[in-house]
Structure formats: structure tokens, C-alpha cells
């Protein structure tokens, strides 16, 4: 496990963007699964200007690793909407390079990625409870592949689904789909990044504590090519 600690959010975001860019400049197809959420906002700002109109990045393919559908709104769910707004649209990434995961195709996700050559890199955020993608403490099993997680999966699942749609009760779905721990561990490289004091305790627990499904991200410690990128606040308990 490699840990990179940067002074602040901007510098941490620049490092994360550079890691992705380092993967992108290759002659062969490159498959990246990338995170939505608030942590990557600055990183995507940097990436948009780095990759926009670069036709030599035509080999780069993008996957989302989870999707939370809106109950009523048609079209993309929370994750793809977020990725479109932050990155795909402003960077003008052609649709042919974007491979959305959703409730219709989740059963094929692992196979599809395998047939495409596997993920070269997956970029993850982490929740303060240790979840990553939609993999939840105690509920998700380390051997789970990409799955459908219903509103009865765990006792606070309805609250989780509500917070994923920004607290809008009209849009609260009754499930989401997510790549599982086993799917994520198949990526050739994992990068997890975190910012701010609210992530400091979980970073310590997940990467310097025991591997346990109480803390889903702790499994990532066992990946042979894991890099953690933190700002000083997220690293403040190490
Ligand atoms: C959501 C996403 C996760 C993400 C997490 C942390 O639950 N499904 O993939 O890692 O939020 O998000 P943030 O970066 O906003 O703290």
C-alpha cells in the first residue's frame, strides 16, 4: 500500500488527476472506473482542461461502479448524472467511451469488464462509515460481485437511499446497484482518495486496523496495487 499525503484539497486533487492521466496516455485500450460524489469535484475540474479535445485519448473507456436510480426522474441515476455534469459533458467525452452501469445491465457488469480486458484502475472515494461504492458495513460480503441492493438489505437502507438522492423523498429509490468487493479487487490498480477531517478516523480504521466487513474498505489493504491519496486533514489521525 502506498500513501500520498498532500498539504490541502487542491494539491490532493491534482495528484489524483495526475495518476489518472498517467494511465490514460497509452497506445492500447485503457479501462477506468471512476467515482462520483463530492471528493472528486476539484479533480474533475483539473481533468476537464487536461483531457478536453485530446483525440489521442480515444482509447480511454470509462465505467461507473454504482448507480442509484431516481424514483421518478427518467434517464440516468445519481451517479451517471453526477459524472456527466462534473466530467463527461464538460470534457466532451464521446458516448462510445462511456459504459453506464444500471439496473438493466448490472448482472453482466463483471463479465462485460472482463471481456473488455479488465479495469486498469478504479478510483474510489470512502464514506465516513467505511463504505466504498455501495458496499456497506456488515451487510456486504467480501465475496459479493456486482449486485442489486434492495431497501431491505440493512436496517438503515431507506435512510441511505434517501441521502443518496439528496434527501428528496419523491425521488427515493428502493434499491441501487453496485460493483461488489470481489469485482473491485479484480482491478489491476486501486486508488482511494479522501479529504477533510470527517474522513480522518475512518482512514485510520480502514487502512491501519483489521480487515473486517465492519469496515468494508479495510479489504482494500489486501490489494497488491493500492494507493491512498489524502490531504493533511484526512491524514490527521495517522
Ligand atoms: C457515495 C458514493 C460512494 C462515495 C461516497 C463518498 O456513497 N456512492 O461511491 O465514495 O458517497 O462520497 P463523498 O466523496 O461525497 O464523500
TrEMBL record:
Gene3D superfamilies documented for this protein: 3.40.50.1360
GO molecular function, one term: glucosamine-6-phosphate deaminase activity
Signal peptide residue numbers: none
InterPro entries in UniProt: Glc/Gal-6P_isomerase, GlcN6P_deaminase-like, Glucosamine6P_isomerase, Glucosamine6P_isomerase_CS, NagB/RpiA_transferase-like
GO biological process, any: carbohydrate metabolic process
Keyword Protein transport: no
Annotated Glucosamine/galactosamine-6-phosphate isomerase domain residues: 17-223
One of the Pfam families matching this protein, by short name: Glucosamine_iso
UniProt keyword list: Carbohydrate metabolism
SUPFAM superfamilies: NagB/RpiA/CoA transferase-like
Name recorded for this polypeptide: 6-phosphogluconolactonase
UniProt source species: Enterococcus silesiacus
Amino acid at each position: 500500500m502506498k500513501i500520498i499525503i498532500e498539504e490541502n484539497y487542491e494539491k490532493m486533487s491534482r495528484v489524483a488527476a495526475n495518476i489518472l492521466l498517467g494511465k490514460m496516455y497509452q497506445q492500447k485500450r485503457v479501462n477506468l472506473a471512476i467515482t462520483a460524489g463530492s471528493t472528486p469535484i476539484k479533480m474533475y475540474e483539473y481533468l476537464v482542461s487536461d483531457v478536453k479535445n485530446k483525440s489521442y485519448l480515444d482509447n480511454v473507456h470509462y465505467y461507473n461502479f454504482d448507480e442509484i436510480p431516481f424514483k421518478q426522474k427518467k434517464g440516468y441515476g445519481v451517479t451517471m448524472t453526477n459524472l456527466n455534469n462534473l466530467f463527461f459533458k464538460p470534457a466532451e467525452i464521446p458516448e462510445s467511451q462511456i459504459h453506464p452501469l444500471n439496473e438493466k445491465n448490472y448482472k453482466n457488469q463483471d463479465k462485460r469488464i472482463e471481456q473488455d480486458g479488465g479495469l486498469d484502475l478504479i478510483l474510489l472515494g470512502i464514506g465516513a462509515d467505511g463504505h466504498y461504492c455501495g458496499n456497506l458495513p456488515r451487510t456486504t460480503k467480501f465475496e459479493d460481485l456486482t449486485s442489486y441492493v434492495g431497501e431491505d438489505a440493512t436496517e438503515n437502507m431507506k435512510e441511505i437511499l434517501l441521502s443518496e438522492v439528496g434527501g428528496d423523498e419523491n425521488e427515493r429509490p428502493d434499491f441501487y446497484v453496485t460493483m461488489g468487493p470481489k469485482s473491485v479487487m479484480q482491478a489491476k490498480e486501486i486508488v482511494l482518495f479522501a479529504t477533510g477531517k470527517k474522513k480522518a478516523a475512518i482512514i485510520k480504521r480502514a487502512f491501519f486496523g483489521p480487515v473486517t466487513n465492519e469496515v468494508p474498505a479495510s479489504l482494500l489493504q489486501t490489494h497488491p496495487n493500492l494507493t491512498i491519496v489524502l490531504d493533511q486533514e484526512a491524514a490527521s489521525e495517522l
